Amino acid sequence: MALKEYNNVQVGVEYYPEHWDESLWEADIKLMQATGVKVVRVAEFAWSRLEPTDGDFQFAWLDRAMDLFHSYGLQVVIGTPTATPPRWLTTGYPDVLPVFADGGIFHPGVRGHRCYNSPSLRKYGSRIIERLAQHYSGHPAVIGWQTDNEFSMLNCHCEHCNDAFREWAKAKYGTLEALNSEWGTNVWSGEYSAWNEFTVPLGGSRHQNPSLLLDFQRFQWDAIVEFQQTQIDILRSVCPEHFITHNFHSYPQKLNMYAVGAELDVAAFDYYPNTSPTKQATAPYSGALSLDLTRGIKRQNFWIMEQLSGTPGCWMPMWRTPYPGFIRAYAWQTIARGADTVVHFRWRSAVAGAEQFWHGLIDHSNVPGRRFAEFTQFCNEVNALGDKLKGTTLKNEVAILNSHEQLVALDIQPQVENMEYYENMKQIHRALTKLGIGCDVIDWRQELDEYKVVIAPSLYLLDEEVSKQLEAYATAGGTLIITNRSGVKNMNNIAVMQPLPGLLSYAAGVRVDEYDPIGTEAHVIVDINGNSYECLQWCDLLTPTTAEPIAWYGDDFYAGIPAVTVNTFGQGQVYYLGTQAEESYWSALLGDLAKKHQLFQFAGLPDGMQASVRTGESGTFLFLLNLNRQAQTVTLPREYKSVLYGQPRSGELQLEPYGIEILEM
Amino acid sequence: MALKEYNNVQVGVEYYPEHWDESLWEADIKLMQATGVKVVRVAEFAWSRLEPTDGDFQFAWLDRAMDLFHSYGLQVVIGTPTATPPRWLTTGYPDVLPVFADGGIFHPGVRGHRCYNSPSLRKYGSRIIERLAQHYSGHPAVIGWQTDNEFSMLNCHCEHCNDAFREWAKAKYGTLEALNSEWGTNVWSGEYSAWNEFTVPLGGSRHQNPSLLLDFQRFQWDAIVEFQQTQIDILRSVCPEHFITHNFHSYPQKLNMYAVGAELDVAAFDYYPNTSPTKQATAPYSGALSLDLTRGIKRQNFWIMEQLSGTPGCWMPMWRTPYPGFIRAYAWQTIARGADTVVHFRWRSAVAGAEQFWHGLIDHSNVPGRRFAEFTQFCNEVNALGDKLKGTTLKNEVAILNSHEQLVALDIQPQVENMEYYENMKQIHRALTKLGIGCDVIDWRQELDEYKVVIAPSLYLLDEEVSKQLEAYATAGGTLIITNRSGVKNMNNIAVMQPLPGLLSYAAGVRVDEYDPIGTEAHVIVDINGNSYECLQWCDLLTPTTAEPIAWYGDDFYAGIPAVTVNTFGQGQVYYLGTQAEESYWSALLGDLAKKHQLFQFAGLPDGMQASVRTGESGTFLFLLNLNRQAQTVTLPREYKSVLYGQPRSGELQLEPYGIEILEM
Amino acid sequence: MALKEYNNVQVGVEYYPEHWDESLWEADIKLMQATGVKVVRVAEFAWSRLEPTDGDFQFAWLDRAMDLFHSYGLQVVIGTPTATPPRWLTTGYPDVLPVFADGGIFHPGVRGHRCYNSPSLRKYGSRIIERLAQHYSGHPAVIGWQTDNEFSMLNCHCEHCNDAFREWAKAKYGTLEALNSEWGTNVWSGEYSAWNEFTVPLGGSRHQNPSLLLDFQRFQWDAIVEFQQTQIDILRSVCPEHFITHNFHSYPQKLNMYAVGAELDVAAFDYYPNTSPTKQATAPYSGALSLDLTRGIKRQNFWIMEQLSGTPGCWMPMWRTPYPGFIRAYAWQTIARGADTVVHFRWRSAVAGAEQFWHGLIDHSNVPGRRFAEFTQFCNEVNALGDKLKGTTLKNEVAILNSHEQLVALDIQPQVENMEYYENMKQIHRALTKLGIGCDVIDWRQELDEYKVVIAPSLYLLDEEVSKQLEAYATAGGTLIITNRSGVKNMNNIAVMQPLPGLLSYAAGVRVDEYDPIGTEAHVIVDINGNSYECLQWCDLLTPTTAEPIAWYGDDFYAGIPAVTVNTFGQGQVYYLGTQAEESYWSALLGDLAKKHQLFQFAGLPDGMQASVRTGESGTFLFLLNLNRQAQTVTLPREYKSVLYGQPRSGELQLEPYGIEILEM
């Protein structure tokens, strides 16, 4: 049976029928239709309305809403409601509630108060999903499901997690002897002599064994995947025509997004770009990375399940209101980077509950205003271009390797002040984006054949599977860029007894003789052209074995020692960056590589302007976005046709503040 | 039976007989008398001495002290000792101890370790008070009682609070259905299906339902009032001639001061103005607001129950020692703003316990020094003027409306970085004080007829009772000033579904089309005279319906849009300030209103100098206070007589650092 | 029976055989021998390997290591393993685990998870030590023992501590009446009416009775001493030829180091000087104080049990790598200040566990590098000079009095912002060190006869034993310098009822009339030569009774009032510093005293250079250390012979960055 379509390029909204007097529903839904909305997400927090007490299922109200959606031509994605277990469940079955490292309980009254390993959550969660699935599998409005809502790490320390972690460890290591050996627990007499001594890491101390901490994280990742699978199994079986998605939110998450995404049909992201002008120099780029990361989860197009519609706020102070054009421009940014359906959060601001000031498209007053008008424009534009854009995707020649395992391991043991795995990735990605070079951001164990350049920041944990793959990639002619803090550990978080970069030493052709963790104490490197750049965080003192140096330290006792090298390896090249140079160094390096490898590049982008390309059977489309409060001008290399405005464009193209253009290439 | 007098203008001290060897008592009390002290407060922390073990009452020691006070002509106020339950009580009846949101216990060994809802506290607290009242009802020295000491919010989460909160909610809402509906608990599936699911908000998360959080606060406010009432009932019945007071401390408190004050004869305040020269520009004004707030609790004169006598310190680092004149000038400030009796804390610094460095008038050495000499001067001055000042009060033409409910609601959901309800009130009050315009600060539900100008910052929660009253006030000719974040919610903390300022829209003649929470990112407004002012926190974009704009935004996408409006409403006018302009804007606006409405104003005050007027049958007295380390000069508009120095004063009047003057008008 | 020698001047390393595959052992130990290492510390964290399950003792592996050490001529110090109770112990006997003030448990998985009062820890700790002692008492490699590892205050709040503290208090005070009286518990009704009400201070509030808090700290100090004594008793009895030490770490520790040290043969210190150039101006001096403090524990030479070998890091971000010369220079600094054996931590960086990035002499790669080469040089130098230096000690004419009781009491009640007992001591010590004046830092109750100048910062707690001793010292011709916040309290933390400096008033010849806690608000003093100095923290306003003023305040209302005085007292003089003047004032004052009393001084030291002298039967040796990244030049007053380089030195002597010189005098 074929799945319902999930790759239309279209616009949606969140709508919570249960939040509003039923007398408002039809007017709301009618206005959605009139505005051009095609999809609605519902019900992901509605458990207490769907099952007010144990076993008392009440779907009639949702039926009425569903029928209304259908009668106005809107399609619906249902969220499974497991992120908000109702009070009868948490009161009657307190094992649902997570336990913090200090023994404190994650009390109900908020959301996300559920241990993924809780037997009661799994039992009652499966029951409500089964009922919902059975009830709506044949409803004509329903096209898909969202599992839970915004999975995030809770690192629960309850008894069930404790038991499950013990079983997990038994399954992985077989015996305590093996576990003791692989984790090096004999340090500080931490050896387990019997399984009953084995627990989740209690107390929250940073001094715990780092191998334990990493595996505990893996166990929790697996718990989410397993928990989600209980939902997917039901949905696949009962609603075989419906697609399944999940909405990830705000990176970096310590989730295993790739495993969570593996069983989904499509990934989704909740996107809230920072509205403050003080973040204008960085927010467009952080956002671009978030979107590229989401596209990388399944290496295919994705949904935005929540798109900024007004200032967020509530438990936290509100942000700035979105500047005119901001909502539209950032919504287009998602499509420019591979979103198909863009669901805006939310139709109207809630009048009750903890999210009252997480502003929707329409304010509490229910008077549509400036933001709604902008949303309407966006709907019209998307509806006009949807058919053209449908099926188009991004084809990039550069990839950045992302690893949640590196992220977590480097958080367990921060290497040096000022070094953040994700911040470093942002810097590289920003340099590429400013250069007008598109890139994919993918899991570090993915195949790399299609890329001309692959950048892998800090492969701190490493195994032969990856090192061999990277060697093969370079041998076959790829350009690989690796950085300091690579090859430091095996996958059990144990330091390797060989010179760094460990398993990558051969490919890099370089040996780290020693290193200086400089943190915030800036140093200097000088490149082969005599240009100086500031560097921070870390300085590896390099001895090239087969590589050539291309930058050297300019100060301290290691002035003159190589800082960056390049090694010819098979048909390809391997760059090693021993330090974290400032962004302009990355720009110079990557700019050179773009020329050398004739990478597709939309050069000459001014501040805040971004370019990306979607291509497919219907054509090739260049998106130009000015994510900026100032008008910006870019020079077009030739004449294009604006598919947005229906006019030819060439030469100097000025984009208004938050202006956008879509050109057919 | 008539109450003993509590409106003498006089000076008192704290004295703890139980802290000192009895051989010191008579010399101390003799010196009090010689210095001019008239009143002593005792016993508010003496429970363990008055009842060393369960039911073993030991009043003989206090009798001896009381008799000594009486023999030297000193009157006594007794504090009920419930703020410090003794160890036999907390050990034997641990329900006395408050429980924090995370389940931790407020352990004994300090003070304030008592849950207001504890059955044991109420039982044993009432018993000791009954005994004390019976014992001292006829003692000739005793004139009144202080309930407990410095009530403050504990937000206890114990089982008894849980049960009591459930009953409180039942009484307010009747049914769970009603409560679910009024609180909007269906958001995030927070609905209660049975009363046993209903608890105080556990865990301390800011993500809890804001309607629950607000009502929980109201419940805790009521618990204090109810707890105090158990004490008042005893005292009124056993000691009908004694007045009753309570000492509030350090604003803003999240207390319902007005309900606590309602059953008191007189309110009292514990006043510790900041001694540091770095706070000199603000402390005199924060202090003035504190005193005006205290006067507003019962809209009558008040007591100072603890007045700064030296540097505070102990668990916290010590402050600067009071500059010469500081102690006297700030004591006079309290009288200038409506204090009658001023009790200094404390006679001599404690040699033991946690308050050792909360300095008294006399140091540990027991050698009276500079500060004591200054106190002596103050006693002499007050004793010389007491008869003249007795019965005089402040008559102000301007009122600021204060609301503990707004304070708490805006704390539950901070609207924007940098916006603090109380800080905004301080800014307005400071502008008035610098202009030499006296004002009352009163509960927002009080009658307003007597005022020419009423300023109501952020009436965020609102009901028709208040909105109608404000409309009536303006209709009848009053000038009302309201600000942004008004009319946002109903009293259950639910957002209203109408354009802002909601229920005040009609009176203000203005509609908020949208808003920009600017926080710390400064913007500009331009007034009708072309003057520019910085504004912060918030920008409402206004469309006047019947109002006239009087200031406009000067930047961002809303440059030119009205920021401040005035609406003629009946005989009066309603100003709406859509943004938080800097103090000089308030000064300009209020200065204009002062001229327009011929408000009494002592204009031309230099930095740190304050003016206020007490008036009554004995005359009208202008207090001029230089709360400043620099001498300051002010120009007197005509000749006055100094009742302090017995000389005529006119023209340029110079006040020494911390100098004061009292002029008969 | 004579103890094995512990006063050789020699070099050692930490080695953890249990961390490494046995195949690595012999190569490692062979390299130690070749490098010149003489001593190894082992086993202090090896409990789980020595006793994998309850009663199953496994010493064979350690025997094999011991035999190897012996066969390569290395001597061994064994650490008792009680700092890391194994999991079978913590699981089976959870009383081993400390309890925090809030009731939380110090969970296993890290180290130091042991309550010193735990019956199970004492029982099982004694058992393993007894077995170890019996097993190794006759092993030819073993020369001594380290008790536990880095004792530090846990302030455990478990049931056993509660009971023990109650017994401790009974023993000290006899009756509750006496305790109530001595602690002044009647303040805030804190009196105990029965012993069952008496507990350790729960909840962690700073508002607890300060007398209780101080005695609780004393109780915990005693618990460590008592716990250690159980170990010493076994070791003395079973291994009468072995010396006993303990490794203190990072000052200020709130330990009673003097009582812990009393039963040891020799004290040891773990020394990790800060490697960052941003700390270069202070780290050499903080380090010097740490070493002088350690030498003062027993007033004799000491060991370094852990000496920096590379950057530390792990749960915390890594520091900078040591600059070339840093490791050697700081190792020589320890010998220059009285270390005999210097054990480097650690041989090779751990590949597993929480200390992976606490770098050893050799990196994970097992390739000896720059740091190892520097260590080798140090070994060679020490081995060449060891015989000459053996038996030499420091003879200083100046002493600073240190008191853990002042440290703790001033932490319980911080007097004023910016005042830290230990920071003030650092300032004084730094001034002396920069002047080239050596000083001892000793417990405040030690005999002082040998010193010409004694400096006692803030003798806040005081009794007649000390005040009489200080009077006697001055009477006999000594120069005593005391500072503000002296004589404030008795030893039970109760303020004295006499003018300050209390018991020292007579000797100081001065009376504190009042004081101004100025904190960070800088003031000025002017000395007798008209020079102005900034002062901070505190200003005592002084009236000399018999003293002479030598500096006066230059501002505020006390301009012109004495700030510093000197009193001729018997044959000696007593200086009183009423304020905390900047370092240059101390330099001027101490420089004058050096001239006046002809103190030995190596004057003219440039930034970062330090001088000290070891003397003994084999000669007198002047150590000059440049603890600086810049070369520095010093002028030698005459010709000396370099025992390090075998050359004569005179006139200008330049030391390279981190260069050192040792001159025979």
Automatic annotation (TrEMBL), chains A, B, C:
Zn(2+) binds at residues 115, 156, 158, 161. Residues 397-599 form the Beta-galactosidase trimerisation domain. Residues 611-665 form the Beta-galactosidase C-terminal domain. GO terms for biological process: galactose metabolic process. InterPro entries: Beta_galactosidase_C (IPR013739), Beta_galactosidase_Trimer (IPR013738), Class_I_gatase-like (IPR029062), GH (IPR017853), Glyco_hydro_42 (IPR003476), Glyco_hydro_42_N (IPR013529), Glyco_hydro_b (IPR013780). The active site is at residues 150, 306. Residues 15-384 form the Glycoside hydrolase family 42 N-terminal domain. GO terms for cellular component: beta-galactosidase complex. Its EC number is 3.2.1.23. It is an enzyme of class 3 (hydrolase). Keywords: Glycosidase, Hydrolase, Metal-binding, Zinc. Belongs to the glycosyl hydrolase 42 family. This is Beta-galactosidase. It comes from Paenibacillus monticola. The lineage of its organism: Bacteria, Bacillati, Bacillota, Bacilli, Bacillales.
